[in-house]
Design a protein that fits this description.
Layout: E1 4-13, E2 16-26, E3 31-35, H1 42-49, E4 57-62, E5 65-66, H2 72-77, E6 80-83, H3 95-107, H4 112-136, H5 138-142, H6 153-165, E7 171-175, H7 183-200, E8 203-207, H8 211-217, E9 220-225, E10 228-234, H9 235-239, H10 242-248
Parallel strand pairs: 3-8, 3-9, 6-7, 7-8
Antiparallel strand pairs: 1-2, 1-4, 4-5, 9-10
Helix pairs in contact: 3-4, 3-6
Length: about 260
């Protein structure tokens, strides 16, 4: 069974084509990477999958149900949460307030009265989920009262991941996990995501320019260039391809394998 499927998706900005007929699939409990150079269309494809932009053509499906053009809140309620590039925390709000905002997409819809009643009924569930996130990311419990803008880059990435986890996702779509972070912090976050996947069963769709990180974290990968998938397959197989080693892994015999 496929959890998330993109079928021949095209994304346009006016006359410019950012994504050109891309198909991609993520199964339950799977870890899949999407790599490629700047401007390849990786973020546009992820935004189309998460309902932030509507594809010009093609279909987006969650568990075989067509969700093309659905709102981001609807996608979240179907079990797909996004960690956006650049984190986008609310800097003046405490860490805990940032986390709680992640639960509202699961509860609130356009009908304000019914949404408010739904939220009041679900408050205990939200608090339980908050404690679960704190158990998964204990550092956030220490920082719960600190304004998110006064935390480090790595801590803000934890906030962004914790906020997405507040919606109890079955798939976490992460855009540029390693952006602007020290290698030690990236390694720690990668290890957390592996545990989240293996112990909690949350599927991972990782978009990252770091091919070495993507291949080490994910069992399967797609290579996107100029809006099209040029390669796909098991990470261990892609690592051995000369064109991948040359373009993404430093090219020499000492490149990661």
């Amino acid at each position: 069974m496929t959890l998330l499927e993109l079928d021949d998706v095209t994304v346009r900005y006016g006359e410019a084509v950012a994504v050109d007929g891309v198909s991609l699939a993520v199964a339950p409990r799977e870890r899949v990477a999407l790599i490629g150079p700047n401007g390849a269309g990786k973020t546009s494809l992820l935004n189309a999958a998460c309902g932030l932009i509507r594809p010009a053509s093609g279909r987006v499906r969650i568990e075989a149900d067509d969700v093309t053009g659905a709102t981001p809140g609807s996608i979240v309620r179907r079990g797909v949460s996004q960690v956006p590039e650049g984190r986008h925390v609310f800097g003046t709000l405490p860490v805990e307030a940032n986390l709680l905002l992640g639960a509202y997409g699961r509860v609130f819809r356009l009908e304000i009265v019914s949404s408010t009643l739904r939220y009041l009924r679900s408050r205990r569930d939200v608090r339980d989920q908050l404690e679960r996130v704190y158990d998964l990311l204990p550092k956030l419990r220490e920082l719960r009262e600190r304004p998110a803008g006064r935390t480090s880059g790595g801590e803000q990435q934890m906030v962004a991941i914790g906020r997405a986890l507040m919606a109890s996702p079955r798939l976490l779509a992460i855009d540029e996990l390693s952006l602007g972070l020290a290698p030690r912090l990236v390694q720690s976050l990668a290890e957390f995501l592996v545990r989240l996947n293996e112990e909690e069963g949350v599927a991972i769709l990782l978009v990252d320019q770091s091919a070495s990180l993507a291949f080490s974290l994910c069992e399967r990968a797609y290579v996107l260039e100029t809006g099209r998938v040029t390669l796909e397959g098991a990470s261990r197989d892609l690592v051995g391809r000369p064109e991948v080693r040359s373009a993404y892994l430093g090219g020499g015999p000492d490149a990661p394998s």
